[in-house]
Design a protein that fits this description.
By secondary structure, the chain is mainly alpha-helical. It has helices at 2-9, 18-57, 66-72, 77-83, 91-108, 117-123, 129-140, 144-152.
Length: 165
């Protein structure tokens, strides 16, 4: 290692240059340690980006589990969870939010009235309509039915038959 070479060569150094060599050695060590931290941060950022990209590309497929993503990206479950450490949401919350946002866009899209709320929810990986409705209302403050009715300009009450599509 560099430090070992410096120690061996210290005896051969000209008088008074030991301080300079010692300072240079300290700078090299400091940069190596700092670079390692930067590399770790960059790796974490790249892993997070890869996980997010995979989830977005496969959002409509069911079973967006940590294990599935980890296998697809050739990493461990823990690695996927670590990618979200320090973020505002966990992997699971990220997937849920993304699905709900895409459902909301689909529900409110002009001309999408022919697709049922159930069809849209299921097309984004939800398998339980009650869970979807609760999560949707928690995130957006209104039910999917209400949001669709408002977007279509046909809101006449939550319980009306015309808004049940």
């Amino acid at each position: 290692s560099l430090l070992w070479v410096l120690c061996e060569e210290a005896a051969r150094l000209a008088s008074g240059s030991g301080d300079e060599v010692a300072q240079a050695g300290i700078r090299v060590l400091k940069n190596a340690v700092l670079d390692r931290g930067a590399r770790r941060r960059k790796c974490k950022e790249m892993r997070l980006r890869r996980v997010r990209e995979f989830v977005e590309w496969h959002l409509r497929e069911g079973g967006q589990s940590v294990g599935r993503v980890a296998r697809a990206l050739n990493c461990t479950d823990r690695s996927v969870h670590r990618a979200f450490r320090g973020q505002s949401e966990t992997f699971t919350r990220y997937v849920l939010r993304l699905r709900l946002e895409r459902c909301r866009l689909a529900l409110c899209e002009p001309g999408a009235g022919h697709r049922s709320i159930t069809e849209i929810a299921f097309s984004y990986g939800f398998v339980n309509l009650a869970h979807f409705s609760r999560a949707y209302k928690e995130m957006f403050g209104s039910s999917p039915r209400h949001a669709r009715a408002l977007a279509m300009g046909s809101f006449s009450g939550v319980g009306s038959a015309s808004s049940a599509k």
